[in-house]
Amino acid sequence: MTSTDVPRPDVCDRRDRRITMFVWPETQCVRSVRRAVKAILGYWGIAHLADDVELLTTELLTNAIRHTGGEQAVRVTIAADQRWLSIDVRDCSASAPRPHRPTACEESGRGLLLVERIAGSWTYRFHPDGTKTVSCRIPL
Predict the structure, then answer these.
(1) Among residues 45, 72, 55, 40, which one has the least CA distance to residue 113?
(2) What is the pTM of this model?
(3) At the N or C end, where does the chain have fewer CB atoms within 10 A?
């Protein structure tokens, strides 16, 4: 392969894009994922979505880190097709995520409410291997 074989952002195939990152469940890893999300959205030519996608990814990843116990890597997948950008965060927690309506004094607990507000909806599913994926998507 020569350097001319490497796709440039302006000529890459924009019909089906996907990136998966495996993240050790530690809060300091969230910043690296945010940077990677921003970079890949720029490469895909949809940088105008970066703020929302970074926030959505951060909220889903932070929840996964809080509830996994730090035993296995968390898988973050960002994918885009012609109409949607989806964010999937898969972790080893067997508990279902639940939105929490925190009081004004509570410092946390608003993550899924933010995801719902920005993405419009979110969902989760359990897998036969005992893991679960929490997902949301936004229109392109």
Answers:
(1) 55
(2) 0.82
(3) N
Give tens-digit pLDDT for 85-123. Answer: 999 999 998 888 876 665 555 555 567 888 989 998 899
Can you read off the two tokens belonging to residue 77? 């997948």
β strands within 11-53, DSSP E: 17-23
Strand order in the sheet with 122-126: 17-23, 74-80, 84-91, 132-139, 122-126
State the CB neighbour count (10 A cutoff) for residue 98. Answer: 7
Nearest to 76 by CA among 54, 95, 96: 54
The pLDDT tens digits of the residues spanning 32-87 come to: 999 999 999 999 999 999 999 999 999 999 999 988 777 789 999 999 998 999 99
> 1 exposed, middle or buried (CB, 10 Å; 0-12, 13-18, 19+)?
exposed
Q: Are strands 122-126 and 74-80 parallel, antiparallel or unpaired?
A: unpaired
d(CA 17, CA 23): 20
- Side chain identity, residue 133: T
